[in-house]
Specification:
By secondary structure, the protein is an all-alpha fold. The protein is built from 14 helices and no strands. It has one domain. The protein is globular, with a radius of gyration of 25 Å.
Length: 389
């Protein structure tokens, strides 16, 4: 069945079909876990343990393991090749530094975006279910950073900026970014998280496409969630971070000054995001080109040395000075070969570049994509209606 399912399809159709069938299975299993939790069928597990077990299943098993091995099985790829195709590629230290700084900026911008949509929902009568912490010890902070920041950053990005984003590229980069962002927002299955998760998803998809690496998205996602966790910890324990943020963003004491300050802060954050994003994309490309050029140069020097040795040997033996065969270097092939060798390109990327057939989504791709959207929209709208009742 698996062999016949994608065997005779062009490479882009294989990728999109395997992508959306895999994602649909993930959506169904994720919905099943949410329903079990909503109906209290997991209440026999103690609170903190239940949260940890649920996160491990959703993140590690579902969004990473099932995602990776089901897609690889359908495509008959090695998991390591799949990860490389999804963007687990060589990344410079400068890229990591830029991504960390961008993580801070995205967190503050996301706070404004979340507050804006929360105000709209509140204005139409939506009542949210908020988690109230009576105490928040250090050990719980560490657990939350691991289970609500680190694991989601790796696993959710693998599913959405890896599986979905790369598997949808046959439809075009813009559509791929939009589809992966919308499904990322909908998979939260919560109207409160849908808006800002989708907006972040658009940015992370854009960054992943232009950097050709998933690591900046993972780092920014982690920073956003980790800082949110730290702010909650600070609020419960009355630490300086919450007091500072309240003082900075407070507009009730002096509305005019407060609004002006927040407007200027938003402009500054937006400008910083724009400039650092450009710098990150530019440096990622430059580092890649530099490494490939150095590798090609080494190959040319080595070949020139071997040619010189060969000519010298022929002279000593009194043979014809001409090389036994003419060496023709295909620059494009050499460039692709060095990309793969240095970890900047996967074998799947090479197969795609060599396939010139036109792409059109087939039945299985459209059906599973549509059903994933229907389920996500249905549950998200239900949470809106439930909050309004």
């Amino acid at each position: 069945m698996r062999k016949n399912f994608i065997r005779n399809l062009p490479i882009r159709n294989k990728l999109s079909r395997a992508t959306y069938v895999t994602y649909f299975v993930i959506v169904l299993l994720f919905l099943g876990i949410r329903l079990l939790s909503s109906f209290g069928l997991l209440n026999f597990i103690p609170g903190v343990v239940r949260s940890i077990v649920s996160t491990i299943f959703i993140q590690i098993i579902l969004m990473f393991t099932v995602c990776l091995f089901m897609f690889s099985g359908l495509m008959k790829n090695k998991p390591v090749d799949t990860l490389s195709y999804w963007g687990y590629k060589k990344t410079s230290s400068r890229t990591i530094v830029y991504a960390v700084i961008l993580g801070f900026i995205v967190f503050f911008l996301n706070s404004y975006i979340a507050s804006f949509f929360a105000a709209i929902l509140e204005a139409i009568g939506f009542r949210s279910a908020t988690v109230v912490y009576e105490s928040y010890p250090w050990w719980l902070l560490i657990l939350n950073i691991i289970f609500t920041a680190l694991l989601p950053a790796i696993c959710e990005e693998t599913t959405h900026r890896g599986l979905l984003l790369k598997g949808s590229l046959g439809m075009g980069a813009t559509k791929s970014i939009v589809i992966s962002a919308l499904l990322f927002g909908l998979l939260h299955m919560n109207i409160q998280q849908f808006f800002y998760a989708t907006i972040i998803g658009l940015y992370l998809g854009y960054l992943t496409i232009h950097c050709d690496s998933i690591f900046p998205a993972i780092i920014i996602h982690f920073m956003n969630n980790a800082l949110s966790t730290l702010v909650t910890f600070s609020a419960v324990n009355g630490l300086w971070l919450t007091k500072f943020l309240d003082k900075v963003t407070n507009v009730e004491a002096n509305p005019v000054t407060g609004l002006m300050f927040n407007f200027l802060l938003l402009c500054l954050l937006g400008f910083g995001l724009w400039q650092l994003t450009k710098k990150l994309i530019q440096d990622s490309g430059n580092d890649r080109i530099k490494d490939i050029q150095e590798e090609i140069y080494k190959g040319i020097v080595k070949q020139d040395y071997l040619d010189t040795v060969g000519r010298s040997k022929n002279d000593v033996l009194g043979q014809d000075n001409q090389m036994p065969r003419e060496i023709i270097v295909d620059v494009e092939e050499l460039f692709l070969e060095k990309n793969v060798k240095l970890g900047y390109m996967s074998k799947i990327d090479m197969d795609i570049m060599k396939d010139y057939q036109s792409y059109k989504p087939d039945f299985w791709t459209i059906a599973t994509m549509t059903l994933s959207f229907v389920i996500g929209i249905g549950v998200t709208v239900f949470t809106l209606v439930w909050g309004l009742l």
